[in-house]
Specification:
The complex is a heterodimer of chains A (283) and B (311).
Chain A lengths: L1 E10 L7 E11 L4 E5 L6 H8 L7 E6 L2 E4 L10 H6 E4 L12 H11 L4 H14 L16 H13 L5 E5 L7 H16 L3 E5 L3 H7 L2 E6 L2 E6 L1 H5 L12 H11 L12 H13 L1
Parallel strand pairs in A: 3-8, 3-9, 6-7, 7-8
Antiparallel strand pairs in A: 1-2, 1-4, 4-5, 9-10
Helix pairs in contact in A: 3-4, 3-5, 4-5
Chain B lengths: L20 H15 L6 H21 L4 H8 L3 H13 L8 E5 L2 E4 H27 L2 H12 L9 H31 L9 H32 L18 H23 L9 H29 L1
Antiparallel strand pairs in B: 1-2
Helix pairs in contact in B: 1-5, 1-6, 1-9, 2-5, 4-5, 6-7, 7-8, 9-10
Classes of the chains: A alpha/beta (283), B mainly alpha (311).
Chain lengths: 283, 311
């Protein structure tokens, strides 16, 4: 469970370029949830996720991630951050920029080896996570710099999966991927989520949020402006958060206004909408 | 990267900020030259050092450079100080005569201590004047000024514009690359890299995991930039006008005279010492210079206050 308790964060305090990125953020992210973090650019999403594994410390307040405490007060903080970083993996935006090793498998094994796993075993873990993200064996020995942009992204995501984190944070993991690749990655995250990993996904694509999220957090200028289920969010007017209504939600809205009584909680994608419509027809 | 803000441009509107960058470079060089003069006795050396330090402190005050920033940038100098002291103690100056104390018959001379103090003072003065320059002048303005100084060299086919362009691009990308460094460090830290602790071998690996991606992104950026410039028809040989014109204001004239006066004063003191003789006309010029100094400083402070009042 992740708990934010009145978290404030200010960049370069007491200088002319001072900027308050988080303002009194309090929220809870449940274990095993698929939480999407949305909001327009510059609203503090990236700052918020960097608090999660102690890359940034709040200027006021504290963040509790399971047994770890990331607080503004030094004494309260968990001393060793390494275990936290294994527990909670972050895939940053444009994560392909983090590749550096001579071969794909070594790059993926780099993470586990940092946490004290022997090389042979780390390579074995690397192979498994590479297969998970759809990188075939023929790529294992290649240099990561020979790959295409999409493949690099997959390799870098595998680099975090290899840490086998209990909580996985992804910052725009599908930006720049082709539609097919994007769908594959998302279904991988969904599968991980079903096997017990908590997923926190930052996205600008509301269709993705509507389809996959179990919970949504909306940030607006450093403040939390909505926490709850995506169906409740999108069937309301979301332009006040400067968000777009997803295509499917528009359809559902139209159907509801035409008098169809649908079970909104069950509708996430086209298939589930069709199922619901069938039930309405039969019922 | 909050740590590397030392000497970064900070956007205020002080009197020094609004000075002509060409003039600022001239004044900086004048003050630096003044810092490096030799004097006949130690007393004069330290009095003059003190006066220069005071001038620089006032400049720092006007241009909103905090004393804390200076101390932070000097933090790494303590090793140099120790080293200087050691070298000077082992090899004392030739005319060393005043023994400060002796350890087991090994004499430490006052001259040795003074010598190291003098060098440290000079270093501090140099760092602080440069800091005033870089934190009050946008890097781009600095390169424009540099290009202006290099223009005469065009006569001997020196590529002044190209050099200035290269420097300004390099300066432009320093913050970008720092941000990139920060991003990559965070990404690698999330993969368990520990940049601060650990054994030599693992720290070496940590540095590699930072440098390789950084180089790749830098090359990528430069390629993209070159393409973008060519796509927009950039031609280094083309004649061009400027969006920002550099102007020499009245305040620049004051600063120019002031720095000239400081330099003149320093030259005089290093020649004649403090003994003021009416036969020497120049010392009086020096005093006049000091008069102008106070006037300008008052002007600067007045200026800052009035600016604040407007805002």
């Amino acid at each position: 469970m992740i708990n934010f308790e009145h978290v404030y964060f200010t960049y370069s305090p007491k200088s002319p370029i001072e900027f308050e990125a988080l303002n009194d953020v309090s929220l809870t992210i449940k274990d095993g949830s698929f939480t999407c973090l949305v909001g327009k650019t510059g609203c503090g999403k990236s700052t918020l996720i960097q608090q999660l594994n102690g890359l940034l410390f709040p200027t006021k307040g504290k963040v509790i991630v399971d047994n770890f405490v990331i607080s503004s007060i030094k004494k309260e903080r968990t001393k060793k951050l390494q275990p936290l970083r294994k527990h909670l993996g972050i895939v940053f935006q444009f994560s392909e920029n983090q590749l550096f090793e001579e071969s794909v498998e070594e790059d993926v094994a780099f993470g586990p080896m940092n946490f004290g796993i022997k090389k042979e075993e780390a390579i074995k873990i690397a192979h498994e996570s590479l297969k998970k993200v759809g990188i075939g064996e023929e790529y294992f020995k290649k240099s990561p710099f020979e790959l295409s942009g999409g493949e690099k992204r997959r390799v870098s995501i595998a680099g975090i999966l290899a840490l086998e984190p209990k909580i996985l944070v992804l910052d725009e993991p599908t930006a720049g991927l082709d539609p097919k690749g994007s769908k594959e990655m998302l279904s991988l995250f969904k599968k991980l989520n079903e096997s017990g990993t908590t997923i926190i996904l930052v996205s600008h694509d509301m269709d993705i949020v509507f389809e996959y999220a179990s919970d949504v957090i909306v940030l607006c200028d450093g403040k939390v402006s909505y926490v709850g289920k995506p169906s409740d969010l999108f069937l309301d007017d979301v332009s006040k958060y400067s968000l777009e209504t997803p295509m499917l939600a528009k359809v559902v809205q139209k159907l509801v206004s035409k008098g169809y009584s649908l079970n909104l909680d069950k509708i996430h994608n086209l298939e589930s909408l069709v199922e619901e419509l069938k039930e309405v027809k039969h019922g | 990267m909050a740590k590397i803000t030392l000497g970064r441009y900070s956007p205020y509107t002080s009197f020094i900020h609004r000075m002509d960058p060409r003039n600022k470079i001239f004044c900086l060089i004048a003050l630096m030259v003044a810092v490096f003069f030799q004097y006949s006795t130690w007393e004069i050396t330290f009095i003059m050092g003190g006066i220069l330090f005071l001038i620089v402190l006032i400049m720092m005050f006007i241009s909103h450079v905090s004393f804390k920033q200076l101390l932070l940038s000097l933090k790494s100098l303590w090793f140099v100080v120790l080293f200087l002291l050691l070298i000077n103690a082992i090899i004392p100056p030739k005319d060393a005569s005043m023994i400060a104390f002796s350890i087991n018959g090994f004499n430490i001379y006052f001259e040795a201590i003074f010598q190291s103090l003098k060098i440290v003072l000079r270093l501090v003065l140099m760092v602080s004047t440069t800091m005033v320059l870089t934190s009050t002048t946008k890097p781009l303005d600095l390169t424009y000024a540099l290009e202006w100084y290099l223009t005469p060299l065009k006569l001997i086919k020196f590529p002044a514009h190209e050099v200035a362009m290269t420097i300004s691009i390099a300066l432009r990308f320093i913050p970008t690359l720092l941000d990139e460094t920060d991003r990559i460090m965070k990404a690698q830290a999330s993969r368990g890299v520990d940049f601060k602790h650990g054994k030599m071998s693992s720290r070496f690996k940590a540095i590699i995991s930072l440098i390789v991606p950084l180089f790749i992104s830098a090359f990528q950026r430069s390629e993209e930039l070159a393409d973008a410039m060519e796509a927009r028809g950039y031609d280094p040989k083309a004649k061009r006008t400027r969006y920002h014109k550099m102007r020499f204001h009245l305040s620049d004239l004051f600063a120019f005279i002031f720095c000239g006066a400081v330099m003149a004063g320093v030259i005089i003191v290093s020649h004649y010492g403090f003994t003021l003789n009416t036969d020497h006309f120049i010392p009086w010029l020096c005093i006049a210079g000091c008069g102008i100094l106070t006037y300008i400083i008052l002007l600067g402070i007045y200026d800052v206050e009035s600016r604040k009042a407007i805002q």
